[in-house]
Design goal:
Layout: E1 11-15, E2 18-22, H1 26-30, E3 41-43, E4 48-53, E5 60-61, E6 66-72, E7 75-80, E8 85-90, E9 97-98, E10 103-107
Antiparallel strand pairs: 1-2, 3-10, 4-6, 4-9, 5-8, 6-7, 8-10
Amino acid sequence: MRKKTDKTDFIQLVVDDAVYETRPNRMHAGRRPYRPANPKEVRSFMPGNIQEVFVKKGEAVEEGSRLCILEAMKMKNVMIAPVSGTVKKINVKVGDKVPKHFVLVELK
């Protein structure tokens, strides 16, 4: 026998022009709201180790400049500047272990 639910248990999801009603689960309740990516923050895309840092605080960088090397799963990934700017803050040093989505370098 199905339990009768109150209409207030449902949430509305809008996909394109369609509106769906569903009950949220634990995963939905614990998720963080969507935030667009900030091009001034260079983040790690997976956990890894910092092998080399090429820039210093206050240094001017062009779009595509090398910032650091993130070694992950035996691959050396060169992290590049997505936009031109000045290095505001470097949050890593050689040998650091970083988690996924960690802000490696901040630009201004």
